[in-house]
Amino acid sequence: MTADPYPRHAVLVIVGAGPRAIGLLDRIAANAPELLDPARKLRIHLVDPHPPGPGRVWRHAQSPLLRMNSMAEDVTVFTDNSSTLEGPVRPGPSLAAWAAEPGRYPPLRPPADPDVREELRSLRSTDFPTRRVQGAYLHWAFHRAVADLPPHITVRVHRTTATRLTGPADGPQRVHLADRAAPLEADLVILAQGHLSAAPTPEQAALAAFADRHQLTYQPPEFSADADLSGIAPGTHILLRGFGLAFIDLTALLTEGRGGRYTTGPDGTLTYHPSGREPVLHVGSRRGVPYRSKPGYQLRAERAPLPRYFGPEQIGAAAEASRRADRLLDLRRDIWPLLAKEIGYGYYHELFHAHPDRTTLDWPRFLAAYDTHDWYAPETAALVADAVPDPADRLDFETLDRPLAGLTDDSHEAFQERLRAHIEADVARRSDPAHSADLGAFYALLSVYGQLPGLAATGRLSPDSVARQLDGWWHGFFSYFASGPPAFRLRELLALSRAGVVRFVGAGLEVEADEVHGVFRARSATVPGHTVTATALVEAYLPHPTVERTADPLLAALDGEGQVLEERRSGDGEDLPTGRISTAPVDGRLLTRDGPHPRRIALGAPTTSRAVAAFARPRTDAPAFRQNDAAARGVLRALGGLSPGPPLPESPAGRASSNAGGAKKSSHLARLAVGCGGDR
């Protein structure tokens, strides 16, 4: 009888069982036939208190009022023929395709909630689904990923929190769990917790203390589904600081979520009917306007071939020029003109090809001249003015980014009218395919967004460029232009404004904690002399990445033990933290004071990879999918190369596979066990 060449399982622990874990399992399944000997058994443990697949953000247990800001056809967790991977592509359906033909895609697991099933039955490809429907898709995708694993790879889910990660760099890693004494022991550990909550900043802590002293309400940054809005009484005047997607979600919860409703009149006008339980919402931000709505149309011409002006070649050239000049790059001065030219290329490519009647030059002549000059060169401005007669068809980044700059109104009501007109114009433009050039710019923005992590990885950006411009201004501009709400949300906002439930404050929002009168006050230079008084302040944005203040117990423990580094950017006399987990640029290994950790990897939103989205639009060569593939291949090579040896000590939870309820397992469930706070 031949001896087993591998007397023990290899063990991988993934902390986090949301969309990123789906991508990792999918790429492990795709690459295992090439990289992992079938005789080498691999046990994968997933640790997450939230449901595997949806995770925290997309879990079923949240309000059905909360929706995605992507169309169903624009969401996938699967690679496709656009993906540039070392491993094999394994196509799969988008959310829209899966909903349209659920019987075509095993394993067949209909959602338990009848409301979710009904939404899936009626879902159109251009609908913006509820988060619960996206959660159902991710739940199915997780089980498909497990089903696709070869027989020698098994998965166990632990519905609990990982609290610590210990173990020597050259030995077994121990993942400590909240609900049991014995840790999981592993050869490798991947941290994939996704977006994380954070403890308050000093300013936020001071605002919370002020609210406590004066019996007011203060809500720090939090994920909308987890925000505690119960202390906001009907009729209360509240301030919302932030005008992005979190504001949209919170507004839905505080209006429709409290019994209000919308009706559509014969002329199509939307009217909001208050329930009487709503507060009065005053909203403002730096920009003073809501995010641009998502385009409700498709490109009418072929997509522009990207990248053209900002890709690996241009990034390499900029980094080399920076080294030769011994001067770090400034994002706004040195890089933004390249980004602007790339986005402009996407915009004008669509305008010239889809709407040639609104241009005076043919595309080859325009492109030849456009290639020659920088975005901000006078020659480029003259070229665009000559070739695009209507100023409304020209791309103006400065006006786009700060539409209220330099504008003032004499009264609060005049500003309400101005901003309603601004929102109405945006909704009309983003709903009219005559303006499909905006979608061309959107695709170019996606391309640029995917290239920027490569620039950051060169180390040639100044500290301010990374900490304040890339993670601050640029991310905000991208979100404002390309990651806004569906148009129907802005129509609802208009109805809420007309009903007096939402009131706009203006740009450059300033908030004051008034100790004398025990209230929050807000003002904006947009309406000089106007002040808003409120008894509640809600931070309407998500927590920023932070290692120092993370609410994740495992990451906090690593930080306290000096086993994780927060990214700091130094140079030009500056040393600035970014809040992100420092990881190796190629394989995502966790960086420590001693260098890359050989047995720990961190991926996703809070890391220096800056590959935030765990799912993506189809056919966009998503950076996260490339990262998942590289990580999976690295893990399989490492685990496949482990020398045969004695078994790792095994926690009681890891000794047996069990499925909740004891039902007969399907073929893929035979490789999947679930631990939900205990062995059951």
From TrEMBL:
Residue span, FAD-dependent urate hydroxylase HpyO/Asp monooxygenase CreE-like FAD/NAD(P)-binding domain: 13-195
Cited Pfam families: NAD_binding_9
Name of the protein in its database record: Adenylate cyclase
Bias type Low complexity, positions: 651-664
Span list, region Disordered: 566-597, 638-680
InterPro entries reported for this sequence: FAD/NAD-bd_sf (IPR036188), HpyO/CreE_NAD-binding (IPR038732), L-asp_N-monooxygenase_NS-form (IPR052189)
Organism: Streptomyces boluensis
